[in-house]
Write a structure and sequence with these properties.
Blueprint: E1 4-9, H1 14-28, E2 33-39, H2 58-97, E3 101-107, H3 111-116, E4 122-126, H4 143-149, E5 154-157, E6 166-170, H5 175-184, E7 196-202, H6 207-222, E8 226-232, H7 236-246, E9 251-255, H8 269-277, E10 282-285
Length: 286
């Protein structure tokens, strides 16, 4: 399968991980293409407050505004140079890890808007952004908006990449996770043949649930994939991280929302909690 990936980097410590996860996915689906974008923000940056003049004379106000304008121009040039340096580093890292075709670009725009406009099969972003540091409880400020805005699968890269051989599928019976199962068992399922998939349903163990999970596992097996399943009592927020640790999972696949009637709450409390707490990359479907 030839895959088109759109990766977004901001120069934070997560940028290297974004590159490594994108390279991994590209190598599974070779030949692939990776478009890496660094966002410079919107062009309309206003650093001049509404009124800085006070009791200054006209000449003084003019001089102040001139200096502020020059500072804005200098900031823009520095941001441009920094963006180019980030993309040079990214291109070099990707060249070491994949033979996929790599393109880089700088863009003046909002990240979520840029993601929504991508002509890509999969979006790759970091779990946290440049401003978030290492605080586990703090998600990147743009991540939820990215997940809301993208109709493509989003691979949320963890802090550091590890080879992915075991994957946990958090199954809730919703349309989002059904989309994930169709993706994995599609015509190019052979790309994922080397990964062990474990399907988890948190909640009550009933004959209907067992039959449903058997069907999901059978779908993956018919596509040539390795799949097991289990039902774990408890809430998803607790059961999913526990099973991920027990199974030594290296990636989590889940839907961005389940089959709740509250359709506008695309990123619900369960999803937010899992993205925040699981120390795993997450491949998310909306």
């Amino acid at each position: 399968m030839s895959l088109k990936l759109a990766a977004f980097v901001d120069g934070s410590v997560y940028s290297a991980s974004v590159c490594d996860h994108a390279a991994w996915l590209a190598n599974l689906n070779a030949p692939s293409r990776i478009m890496v974008t660094h966002m410079l923000g919107r062009r309309s940056r206003q650093s001049v407050p509404a009124d800085l003049s006070g009791n200054l004379s006209l000449g003084a106000r003019t001089d102040l505004l001139t200096k502020l304008s020059a500072a804005d121009e200098e900031w823009a040039q520095l941001a441009l140079a920094r963006g180019r340096a980030i993309l040079e580093d990214v291109a070099a890292r990707l060249a070491e890890k994949t033979e996929a075709a790599v393109e880089t670009r700088l863009r003046h725009d909002d990240l979520a808007d840029a993601v929504a406009e991508q002509d890509a099969d999969v979006i790759v972003v970091g779990k946290r952004g440049e401003a978030s540091g290492y605080a586990r409880e703090h998600l990147g400020s743009n991540l939820e908006r990215v997940l809301r805005g993208s109709d493509k699968p989003v691979l949320v890269a963890n802090y550091e990449f590890s080879p992915i051989e075991r994957c946990l599928i958090a199954y809730d019976g919703g349309t989002s996770i059904a989309k994930a199962v169709r993706y994995l068992s599609g015509t190019d399922a052979s790309a994922y043949a080397g990964i062990e998939f474990h399907i988890l349903k948190a909640g009550e163990d009933t004959p209907d649930v067992r039959a449903e999970l058997e069907g999901v596992a059978a779908t993956l097996k018919q596509a040539g994939l390795t799949a097991t399943w289990e039902i774990r009592a408890g809430e998803p927020e607790q059961a999913i991280p526990d099973v991920a640790v027990e199974k030594k999972s290296q990636m989590l696949i889940m839907g961005a929302y389940g089959h709740s009637r509250i359709r506008n709450l695309i990123i619900g409390s369960t999803t937010t909690s899992l993205v925040r707490s699981c120390r795993l990359p997450i491949l998310m479907f909306r």
